[in-house]
Amino acid sequence: MALIFRIAMQSVGLLLSLLGWVLSIITTYLPHWKNLNLELNEMENWTMGLWQTCVIQEEVGTQCKDFDSFLALPAELRISRILMFLSNGLGFLGLLLSGFGLDCLKVGERQQDLKKRLLILGGILFWTSGITALVPVSWVAHTTVQEFWDETVPEIVPRWEFGEALFVGWFAGFSLLLGGFLLNCAACSSHAPLASGHYAVAEMQTQCPHLENGTADPKV
């Protein structure tokens, strides 16, 4: 029963981490980190991501333009690019390591200690990946709130608001954190079944030495 519960916990943790990793990649390339609605022209909306700015018009459709220079970007967008790439890379490494550490995987059944270490290391990588995904999303959200309530900007000037990518990024980060937590819990609660089996055989041989002589009577 404990083995089934541990395998289920590992499976749920890995699926949550996989979901968070995929959403983190989607967040990196979505051009909807910020939205801008023009009151003077309600048929035109602007969106901004880490790589490009897009304008959405009902008659023309969506037109996007990539940023010309990395150094010309605001600090939060420059750092967000780096952190999101780091999050995606750490999530990929976490998937590889934790995948080989699953109990349901038949590879390395006789190396339970190694599989346990791989599972713990994969969980730590997912934690790090989740944090590095939450930091840039929260930073951009904080900057957006500050600029929205900036009293030095005239009220007639349009303000940027939260885009859909921020919510996707928050969900991705928390999924990675929860997935890594479940994997570490499953790894810490695991026991080495092969080792316990060896102890049982050794104990049986100690209590029943007559079995080694091939006799049925312990007194012979």
From TrEMBL:
Chief location of this protein within or outside the cell: other
PROSITE patterns in alphabetical order: CLAUDIN (PS01346)
Segments crossing the lipid bilayer: 12-30, 79-97, 118-142, 162-183
Alphabetized Pfam families for the sequence: PMP22_Claudin (PF00822)
Membrane topology: Multi-pass membrane protein
Location(s) in or outside the cell: Cell junction, Tight junction; Cell membrane
Keywords assigned: Cell junction, Cell membrane, Membrane, Tight junction, Transmembrane, Transmembrane helix
Domain of life: Eukaryota
InterPro entries associated with the record: Claudin (IPR006187), Claudin_CS (IPR017974), PMP22/EMP/MP20/Claudin (IPR004031)
GO CC terms, sorted: bicellular tight junction; plasma membrane
Its biological purpose: Claudins function as major constituents of the tight junction complexes that regulate the permeability of epithelia.
Protein family (similarity comment): Belongs to the claudin family.
Name this polypeptide is given: Claudin
Taxonomic source organism: Daubentonia madagascariensis
